[in-house]
Design a protein that fits this description.
The protein has helices spanning 2-15, 28-44, 56-62, 72-91, 108-118, 143-149, 179-193, 211-221, 241-252, 266-271, 275-279, and strands at residues 19-23, 47-54, 98-105, 123-128, 153-158, 168-173, 196-203, 230-236, 256-260, 287-290. By secondary structure, the protein is an alpha/beta fold. The chain folds into two domains: 16-158, 3-Layer(aba) Sandwich (Rossmann fold), CATH 3.40.50.620; 168-290, Rossmann fold, CATH 3.40.50.620.
């Protein structure tokens, strides 16, 4: 009886409006995030919101002649309207439902999370400089906080990563009941691009891998998968999980790493000790953190 329930969940989610929030600070990394957000918006037929949190120090870097930041709001509005028009011209004809802009004073992380909640956004797409390039007033330095505190999915896009249709998604898990829901979201995403999925069952144990448990996972999750290009992979990383996953992404030619973030989950095992430091490993591929269903 469980299977029909899950199919109903898929139907309802596809019928509901989909909203993507993309925080920007006009840096290269946030412009890359806009590209990802708009391309995904085309596929989801989504409403896209470009959001900027006003920051005088950032503004003065863009407009150093305006010493007292008298024209900050006008400057930001013009920049955002230019981006909005570019997105509308490129992506509305391809399926994006709408693109709106918003900006507001305040704490960057708090404002992003507040707007996410107010707009009932399904996905936050945020650029990052890479956590090994932290800067106080650049949006990238906030990415780890957003991942930690958001209750919606977050897609983190590194600065030097430009959009391309993903050929392979790597879903890393140590197996949880919620994987059955997460895999449906991943399958929907993969269907947009005809992507391959590696469902990577990871062990951090130094002991022999329990292949029986792996087979149980395959048997239980397979009925929830409606996608042909799925590979079930069993892998043991004896040392740093985050570094092991980064290496797997490179060797398997994965384009996006997907993890499920719930309390006491695999995500916590990878990132709990130092989220910012661990996210530094993922500077060449986007990271999709699933946080809601």
């Amino acid at each position: 009886m469980r299977q029909p329930t899950q199919r109903l969940l898929i139907f309802l989610k596809m019928e509901n409006p989909f909203t993507i929030l993309c925080p920007i600070d006009f840096s290269e990394c946030s412009l890359n995030a806009i590209e990802y957000a708009s391309r995904l918006g085309e596929k989801y037929k989504a409403d896209l919101i470009l959001f900027h949190v006003l920051n005088t120090q950032d503004y003065l870097k863009l407009s150093p002649l305006d010493v007292n930041a008298k024209h900050q709001e006008e400057f930001v509005r013009e920049k955002m309207q230019t981006l909005q028009k570019a997105v509308q011209a490129e992506s509305i004809p391809k399926g994006l439902k709408s693109c709106e802009i918003a900006f507001q004073d305040g704490n960057v992380v708090k404002m992003i999370l507040d707007l996410t909640s107010m707009k009932k956004a399904n996905l936050i797409v945020i650029g990052t400089e890479g956590m090994n390039e932290l800067r106080e007033n650049v949006m990238g330095s906030r990415a780890s906080q957003i991942v930690q505190e958001a209750d919606r999915d977050v897609l983190v896009v590194p600065r030097k990563v430009f959009f391309k249709s993903p050929r392979k998604l790597v879903f890393a898990s140590d197996y949880m009941e919620e994987d059955k829901l997460a895999i449906q979201k991943i399958v929907e995403f993969a269907g947009f691009f005809d992507s391959e999925i590696d469902l990577l069952h990871v062990s951090s144990s130094r002991k022999s891998i329990d292949r029986t448990l792996h087979q149980v996972m395959i048997d239980e999750i397979t009925p929830f998968i409606r996608h042909e290009k799925v590979n079930f992979v069993l892998k043991s990383f004896k040392d740093d999980l985050a570094l092991g996953l980064e290496n797997y992404l490179q060797t398997s030619k994965g384009d996006i790493l997907v993890t499920l973030s719930k309390k006491k989950t695999f995500f916590d095992q990878i990132f709990s000790k130092n989220l910012s430091k661990k996210m530094a490993y993922f500077t060449s591929k986007p990271l999709w953190v699933i946080k809601s269903f």
